[in-house]
Amino acid sequence: MRTYQMIRWTKAYKYGCLSVRMNVPLYLLLTFAHLVLAAAAVAQYVSLERQLLEEGISSGRRTCRLYCRVGIGFHLQIHPDGRVNGSHEPNQLSVLELFAVSQGVIGIKGVYSNRFLAMNKRGRLHATELFTDDCKFRERFQENSYNTYASVIHRNHRTGREWFVALNKRGKAKMGSSPRVKSQHVSTHFLPRVNLHDKGERGFTITDRSKERRKTPQPLPPPPPRPSLVKANVHVGPTPRRSQVKYWPKYRFG
Fold it and tell me: Where does the record place a coiled coil (predicted)?
């Protein structure tokens, strides 16, 4: 009987060891499979993000507003009828789309008006429905964080001076051929503003009331009541005439 039990225990021990040995590789295999799937998901996410980033860079499209700090400050806006000017308050006409044409050369399109900013051979700014060579501008970054936009094909052929996009103090478009329109002038400096929300930022401040109480002066006590003036008895009758003293002249003889 004891021999039979020992044989039984020996078989159970062997089968248990075999099951443990079989379960350990299976557990490792499942863990490795999970790691492989996780790595594949991460690689797919990274590749998708990189693809979207490359598409955004290759397209080179930016939706923003071009703010010129001349005068009270104006946003460049493009009207559906082809007019180009500036508006102090941001609106839908000032929402622009800047897209890359080549290295350093961009085009400017009005999102609402669906027209392209252009400069003719006289240096006048206007907007067209079709994109032509007049719509190509060279974008340069200045040291003061502002940008300048000069026409690619139109310039002063005698001196080689470039013609820039500019606004005057009243928000009207300036002639790029004007000798006063230079890259150093504030009228040619534009700042791309990416925040397109017209509503102002909302916020709150926390103030310490104890400090205000310390700083606010205490109210002064009311002034003491003034004593009532007692009127003296004044003679009401006719005023007595004062006797005038007459001085007789003195004559000295000898």
Answer: none
